[in-house]
Amino acid sequence: MAAKPCIPKGTRDFSPVEMAKRNYIFDTIRSVYHLYGFQQIETPAMETLSTLMGKYGEEGDKLLFKIQNSGDYFAGLTDEELLSRNAAKLACKFCEKGLRYDLTVPFARYVVMHREELTFPFKRYQIQPVWRADRPQKGRYREFYQCDADVVGSDSLLNEVELMQIVDTVFSRFGIRVCIKINNRKILTGIAEIIGEADKIVDITVAIDKLDKIGLDNVNAELREKGIAEEAIARLQPIILLNGSNQEKLDTLRRVLAASETGLKGVEETEFILTTLGGLGLQNPVELDLTLARGLNYYTGAIFEVKARDVQIGSITGGGRYDNLTGVFGLAGVSGVGISFGADRIFDVLNQLDLYPREAVNGTRLLFTNFGPREAAYSLSVLGRVRAAGIRAELYPDCCKMKKQMGYANAQGIPFVALAGEDEMRDGKLTLKNMETGEQRLVTPEELIQAVAP
C-alpha cells in the first residue's frame, strides 16, 4: 500500500474558499499600495547565499533554507572536510543559493542591480512568498507570504508617516482593530550608550525584542549570558518598562538620553512622526514602545510593529528604516524605509474574527442546470449575457438527475440556480430558484440578470 502523501511541516494547502479569502487580503493591500503611488516588482524565489548571508544577524542566518548544488556537490571537498562533520562549513561548500528569507534584502539587491533604470525616490511593493527554517507553531510558518512596500532614495520622515497611514488604511478596510507600535533604533543605541554597553547594542536589541514572548526575567537572563554587566541590566529595567503617554515617554527619554547625541536624534525623529500622525485622524492608536527592537540588524532608524487588539497572535505587520542596506551591495548613501504585512497571520485574524465580506469569499453566483444538449445550448446563450454583465456563473457540464445538480449547487454555496426545460425555451425564459429561500419564479434573461446581480 502506497504511503499517504504529506506536505512539509510549516506549510499549508489552501482550498478554493481559503484562496478567495487570501486574494481578498492581497487585493485589499494591493489597492491601498496603488492609492499611495507604489509600483509592483517581483524577484526570484532563490537568491545567491552571498546576497542573503550576514544581513539578518546570526539568528536569522540560521533560519535560511539553503539549496543544495546540482551535480557532483562533493567535487572539491577533501576527505578531511567530509569527516569533520562541520555542518555549517559543509553547507557553504554544498550550497551556493538559498530561498529568500524576506523581500527587503532581495529588493536592496534589485535596486543596486537596476539603479540606472530607476527614478528616485523609488516606491515599490512586492507580494510574494518567503521561507524560514523556523520551528512551526501557531501563527508561525516556514512558508508564508509577505506584502512589502518600500521607499528608497529619500531621507524624509514623511515616508514613515505615509507608511503608517497605509497600515491604518489597510486594517481599517479589513475591520481589524490594531495598535501600531513605533520605536527607533537610535533610541536603543542611545540607551546602550548610557548604560555603558554601547558595543553590545545587537545583543541588547535581540533580547529586548523577545520581552513579550519570554518575559522580563528570561530577557535579563539572556542579557547576562551575552556578558552584559549586572549594573547595566539594572539601569536598563526602568527604561524598557517606561509607562505613560507618548509625549511623557518622549520627555523622559529626552532627559535620560541627554548625554547621547544618537539617542536624542532618535527621540527627535520619533516625535516628528508621532506629532505628524496625530494630526491626520488615524483610526488606530500609535504607541511609542521601547521594548520594540525588531531583531534584524539592518534597521537604523524608525521601527514599526502592528498587533491585533482582539486576537492573541504575534506581530501582523512590521518594518522600519534601513539607511545602509544597499551599501553592502556596493551602493552607499541610499536611504530606505519599508513595511511588510504578514498575510498569513492576517488570514488567521480575519478567520478568528469572521470579518470576511460575503462577496469576497463567494464563488459562482448562478448555476445553469443541464437537462440535455438542446437545453444546454439554450442555457449557454443566456450564460454568455450573464457573464457579460459581470456575474459569476457556470453551466453544470453533465446531463444528470436534478438532485445531483442541486446537491452540487448546495455544496458550492451557489445562491441561485437557473432551470431551462421545454416550457422555458418555448417562452424564451428561465426558472430562477433562490437556494436560500426555495422561492422559484419564471423570468426573462434580462430579469434574471437584474435579480442575480450582487
Write the layout of secondary structure elements.
Blueprint: H1 16-35, E1 39-40, E2 46-48, H2 49-52, H3 57-62, E3 66-68, H4 79-84, H5 87-94, E4 95-99, H6 104-113, E5 122-131, E6 143-152, H7 158-174, E7 178-184, H8 185-194, H9 201-208, H10 211-225, H11 230-240, H12 246-256, H13 261-278, E8 286-288, E9 302-308, E10 317-321, E11 336-342, H14 343-353, H15 358-361, E12 366-368, H16 373-388, E13 393-395, H17 402-412, E14 416-419, H18 422-427, E15 430-434, E16 440-443, H19 445-452
Parallel strand pairs: 1-5, 7-8, 12-13, 12-14
Antiparallel strand pairs: 2-4, 3-4, 5-6, 6-11, 7-9, 9-10, 10-11, 14-15, 15-16
Describe the structure.
It is a single chain. The protein is an alpha+beta fold and 454 residues long. The protein has two domains: 16-353, BirA Bifunctional Protein, domain 2; 362-452, 3-Layer(aba) Sandwich (Rossmann fold), CATH 3.40.50.800. The protein has 19 helices and 16 strands. It has helices spanning 16-35, 49-52, 57-62, 79-84, 87-94, 104-113, 158-174, 185-194, 201-208, 211-225, 230-240, 246-256, 261-278, 343-353, 358-361, 373-388, 402-412, 422-427, 445-452; strands at 39-40, 46-48, 66-68, 95-99, 122-131, 143-152, 178-184, 286-288, 302-308, 317-321, 336-342, 366-368, 393-395, 416-419, 430-434, 440-443. The strands form three sheets. It has an eight-stranded mixed beta sheet with strand order 1-5-6-11-10-9-7-8. Strands 13-12-14-15-16 form a five-stranded mixed beta sheet. Helix 7 (158-174) packs across helix 13 and helix 12 (246-256) packs antiparallel against helix 13. The longest helix is centred in the N-terminal third of the chain and has 20 residues, at 16-35. The two termini are 49 Å apart. The model has no long low-confidence stretch (mean pLDDT 90).
